[in-house]
Design brief:
Elements: E1 12-16, E2 21-24, E3 29-34, E4 44-49, E5 52-53, E6 59-60, E7 67-68, E8 70-75, E9 78-83
Antiparallel strand pairs: 1-2, 2-5, 3-4, 6-7, 8-9
């Protein structure tokens, strides 16, 4: 929803609940300078996936294909997530 990767889509690869952050493949790529570990080895610049706040991401509905907020319905003992735009199962 916000930042340099606004409008891009990707799959969530890792969730960090203690920090309320997520890591999404192909988004929020940062450069990290790596020092040489052994003598004669060269240092290099690596691209790593950095976490960002989950509030800056939205779920894409599987039925309508749009970004949406979701709600939950209780059907007996089971909790199902639904799309607020189309009402379908998200």
């Amino acid at each position: 929803m916000a930042g340099k990767d606004r409008g891009k889509t990707g799959k969530v690869t890792k969730v960090i609940p203690s920090e309320e952050k997520i890591i999404v493949e192909g988004m929020n790529i940062k450069k990290k300078h790596i020092r040489p570990k052994k003598q004669g080895q060269k240092g290099h610049i690596a691209s790593i996936l950095a976490p960002f706040y989950a509030a800056n991401a939205m779920i894409i509905c599987s039925s309508c294909g749009k970004t949406t907020r979701t709600g939950y319905k209780l059907e007996g003992e089971k909790k199902t997530r639904f799309c607020k735009k189309c009402g379908g199962v998200a």
